[in-house]
Write a structure and sequence with these properties.
Oligomer: single chain
Distance between the termini: 47 Å
Structural class: alpha/beta
Strand order of the largest sheet: 2-1-4-6
Radius of gyration: 23 Å
Number of strands: 8
Order of helices and strands: HHHHEEEEEEEE
Helix content: 25-40%
Shape: elongated
Bound molecules: copper (II) ion
Strand content: 15-25%
């Protein structure tokens, strides 16, 4: 095992209290990745939204911090009198493996959520200049969006470069729109862009340069005007 070669780490003895901190942090990091991966599946989808403003990513941080705190207190109380709880090399490898697991799951969740969008995008000829596209910005219209107070567009605020393509995917069963403006009473409503009604599973893609102006642009759903999102072009 020459993962961490000749640093003398295997001769450094670790006390129970230090081991407790490393174990708790490692498991919480792995949990953060796993929660990121399962964030779209039941029952995690609902558990991960402890309250609306926190949404899913807030829930992922909340629960991994709770795991970290509870584990640390428990392990510290159990191990604090232990003078020798292994050596530093062992715990460093444990930490790196947990970090790898967490990162792997987080990475897999990115591929999982974006791959279908990208595949569908490249097979459609709806937008010109797809060869020039350097980045893809993806926004999901979440299941349950039609219920007022539920998170709707995720992420609700996105930043896109001028040469990127922004794609909205309706994951909900109800139809929704992506319409520029602040609401149905906005005289500029739909002037910059309007997806029209998007049924379940339907996508709407738009090159960011079609918006033209740099800066912040609000949009909403004509059918459910409480659904609001924002794009910043920079
Ligand atoms: Cu809607």
């Amino acid at each position: 095992m020459s993962l961490i070669p000749s640093l003398g780490l295997s001769t450094v003895k670790v006390s129970g209290a230090v081991a407790a901190a490393i174990i708790a942090a490692s498991i919480a990091l792995a949990a953060m990745g796993v929660l990121t991966y399962v964030r779209k599946t039941e029952p995690f989808k609902t558990w991960l939204v402890p309250y609306t403003p926190a949404a899913q990513y807030g829930g992922i941080f909340l629960y991994s911090n709770v795991i970290w705190g509870v584990l640390w207190v428990g392990l510290f109380l159990g191990l604090r009198h232990k003078q020798n709880a292994g050596n530093l090399k062992t715990w460093l490898i444990f930490f790196l493996v947990s970090l790898g697991i967490g990162t792997g799951f987080a990475e897999a969740s990115l591929n999982w959520s974006q791959l279908p969008t990208m595949m569908q995008f490249s097979s459609s000829s709806a937008t010109e200049s797809s060869s020039e596209t350097t980045s893809e910005v993806s926004v999901t219209i979440l299941k349950g969006s039609s219920i007022q107070g539920s998170p709707a567009y995720a992420p609700s605020i996105v930043t896109a470069s001028k040469d990127s393509t922004i794609t909205w995917v309706n994951d909900d069963v109800a139809p929704h729109t992506v319409t520029s403006g602040t609401g149905t009473d906005d005289p500029q409503s739909g002037k910059l862009f309007d997806s029209g009604s998007l049924g379940q599973g339907k996508k709407f893609s738009m090159p960011a340069k079609h918006i033209g102006a740099m800066g912040e642009h609000g949009y909403y759903c004509i059918i459910h005007p409480f659904m609001k999102g924002k794009i910043t072009i920079q």
